[in-house]
Specification:
495 residues, alpha/beta, two-stranded antiparallel ribbon
Length: 495
C-alpha cells in the first residue's frame, strides 16, 4: 500500500514547524502540509514526487486551490531492475507501457536502500497496542472501535480480578499452613528455674552478679546436649540461656586490665567494668554448685553437676585469652582457686584426670607451656589445634578440645552443604581427635542460609563431632533440623 500525501489547511496549523526549505521551493510556501501514517516513510520521496509534477505556476496553483489533495507518486520502471530515467505520475493509470511496472515510492526506496541501512528500529508501544485492537482498523467506524476497546478493557479487568482472587486465596492458604506448622513444631517454652532466671535476669552492677531465690526445679526436664555456646557473652542473658537450652559448654573472651581484673568482651572497646569473668560466669556457677550440693555431707553420692537429667555431666567454660596470655595466667589461676578448693573443677593429679562439675579450657592466646607446667594439680586444660594432632604433645592429660576453623579443615562449604570428600575429611579428623581422647570442635560454621546451616550441623553430628559449635541455641537444641525450613520460610530462625 503506497503512502499518501494529504494537504489540508487545518493540518498545516498543527504542523507549522515545517519550513519552505523542505520542498526546496523557496518561492512557494505551502500553506497546507501534514503527514499521517507514513510520515517518516515518505519524508524524502514525497517532495520528489511533488517536484516531478513540474515547476510551472499553474500546477502549484492547482495544488493550492484544493482543500484536500491526495498525491500518490508512482514510478514506471523496467522489469529488469531500477535504472535509466524515472518519471513520476499522479495515478497508476497514467502508466500504460507494457514494458513498465508501476511501483510506489516506498517500494522504490526499499530497493535503493543499502542492506546495512535500517530506517526504523523496534516497533513502538503504539504499534504493539494495535495488536490488542485499540487502534482504528481499516474500514472501521469510531463507534465500532470504542466497542472493541470496551470489550478488551472488560476482559482485562476480569482477568486481573480472577488472578488477584486466586493470589489472595493462595496467600491465605500459605500463611495458614505455615502458622499451623509453627504451632505444631515450635518447642514449648520451659518452666524450669533456669528459664525463670532467663526471664528476670539483669546486668551485673558494682555489687556483682544477679542474686535470685533458688528453686528446686532449677534444671528440671532440661536434657544436656553436646553443644557449645559460641561467644556466649553476646547473648541477652550470658550463661543461663545456654544452660536453659541444654548446652554443656560456654565461651568467654577475657581481657586483662591494669588493676588485674578480667573483663569479658569480644574486643577491648566492647568491655565494661561491670562485665567481668567473675560477675558473668564464675560467681553464677559457684552459686549453682553451692545450691546443688547443699546436702552433700549426708549423701553417699552427691549430684555435683548442673543438670538434674544427668548430674555427672561436666559443664565446660572455654576461656579465650584475648590479650597477653602469660600475664592473664596468674590472675585467672587466682580467680579459679575458690572453685578448685570446693572440688568443683576437673583436674589432672599427675596420673589421672579427675572429673568435676566444671571443666576449664584455655584457647586463643592461652600459653600451652604454662598448661603443661603444672603436672600434678592441673585444672586449666588446653584447646588443641585439630589439624596438628600428629604432634605427640597434645593428649587427654593436658587438653580437652581439638578445634579448628571449618573452612581451614575442609574448604568452603556452600550450596547444598558438605560434599562427600569434605565429609570424609571431617570423619578422619574426628577419629584422630578421639584416638587421643579429645573432643573435636569446628568453629566458624555457616549461619545462613538456615537450610545450609542445619545441613552442616547434621553432617557434623553424623560424623561424630565431639562438640557442636552453635550460635543459634534454640534452633540447635530444640528444633528438628529437617523442619527448620518449610515452604521457603525459616521456621526456627537464628535464636
Amino acid at each position: 500500500m503506497s503512502c499518501s500525501l494529504l494537504l489540508t489547511e487545518e493540518l498545516a496549523q498543527e504542523h507549522g514547524g515545517i519550513d519552505e526549505n523542505y520542498l526546496l521551493l523557496p518561492r512557494w510556501d505551502p500553506p497546507h502540509f501534514s503527514f499521517f501514517r507514513c510520515t517518516f516513510e515518505i519524508y524524502t520521496l514525497s517532495w520528489t514526487g511533488l517536484l516531478a509534477m513540474g515547476s510551472s505556476e499553474e500546477k502549484f496553483d492547482h495544488v493550492k486551490a484544493q482543500t484536500v489533495v491526495t498525491v500518490r507518486p508512482v514510478s514506471p520502471m523496467r522489469l529488469g531492475g531500477i535504472g535509466g530515467s524515472k518519471t513520476f505520475y499522479d495515478d497508476e493509470s497514467a502508466v500504460s507501457s507494457p514494458g513498465l511496472s508501476v511501483i510506489s515510492l516506498e517500494e522504490m526506496e526499499a530497493r535503493l536502500r543499502p542492506q546495512w541501512y535500517r530506517r526504523s528500529g523496534a516497533p513502538s508501544w503504539r504499534d504493539r497496542v494495535s495488536w490488542y485492537g485499540l487502534r482504528l482498523r481499516t474500514g472501521e467506524t469510531e463507534s465500532q472501535r470504542r466497542e472493541r476497546r470496551r470489550r478488551c478493557c472488560r476482559w482485562t479487568v476480569i482477568t486481573v480480578v480472577v488472578f488477584t482472587v486466586f493470589g489472595v486465596m493462595a496467600g491465605i492458604v500459605y500463611i495458614t499452613f505455615v502458622t499451623a506448622l509453627l504451632r505444631r513444631l515450635a518447642p514449648p517454652s520451659g518452666q524450669s528455674g533456669l528459664q525463670h532466671i532467663v526471664e528476670t535476669w539483669k546486668e551485673p552492677d558494682s555489687n556483682g552478679a544477679l542474686t535470685y531465690k533458688w528453686r528446686d526445679d532449677f534444671s528440671r526436664d532440661i536434657v544436656p546436649k553436646t553443644c557449645h555456646s559460641h561467644n556466649d557473652y553476646w547473648r541477652p542473658v550470658p550463661l543461663y540461656m545456654a544452660l536453659a537450652a541444654g548446652c554443656v559448654s560456654v565461651e568467654a573472651d577475657i581481657w586483662l586490665t591494669d588493676d588485674s581484673e578480667l573483663l569479658v568482651g569480644h574486643s577491648w572497646k566492647s568491655t565494661s567494668s561491670a562485665r567481668t569473668l567473675r560477675s558473668l560466669y564464675l560467681d553464677p556457677l559457684a552459686t549453682i554448685f553451692t545450691n546443688r550440693n547443699v546436702s552433700a555431707a549426708s549423701a553417699l553420692e552427691k549430684e555435683v553437676g548442673v543438670f538434674d537429667w544427668d548430674p555427672n555431666v561436666s559443664t565446660v567454660l572455654l576461656i579465650d585469652f584475648k590479650s597477653n596470655g602469660s600475664a592473664i595466667w596468674p590472675v585467672l589461676l587466682s580467680q579459679l582457686q575458690p572453685l578448685r578448693d570446693n572440688n568443683w573443677l576437673t583436674y589432672f593429679n599427675g596420673t589421672h584426670v579427675i572429673p568435676g562439675p566444671l571443666t576449664i579450657v584455655g584457647t586463643g592466646d592461652a600459653p600451652f607451656h604454662l598448661v603443661q607446667a603444672n603436672s600434678t594439680n592441673r585444672f586449666i586444660f588446653y584447646d588443641a589445634p585439630l589439624l596438628s594432632l600428629s604432634e605427640d604433645k597434645y593428649n587427654a592429660t593436658n587438653s580437652l578440645y581439638a578445634s579448628t576453623n571449618l573452612k581451614a579443615a575442609v574448604g568452603s562449604v556452600w550450596g547444598r552443604g558438605m560434599s562427600g570428600s569434605q565429609l570424609d575429611r571431617v570423619r578422619q579428623q574426628v577419629q584422630a581427635a578421639e584416638a587421643k581422647g579429645l573432643k573435636s570442635r569446628y568453629w566458624d560454621t555457616p549461619d545462613w542460609p538456615v537450610g545450609l546451616r542445619d545441613g552442616v550441623w547434621r553432617r557434623l553430628t553424623e560424623a561424630g563431632v565431639g562438640m557442636l559449635n552453635v550460635d543459634a541455641l534454640v534452633s540447635a537444641t530444640s528444633w528438628d533440623w529437617g523442619w527448620c525450613v518449610v515452604a521457603g520460610i525459616a521456621l526456627c530462625g537464628d535464636s
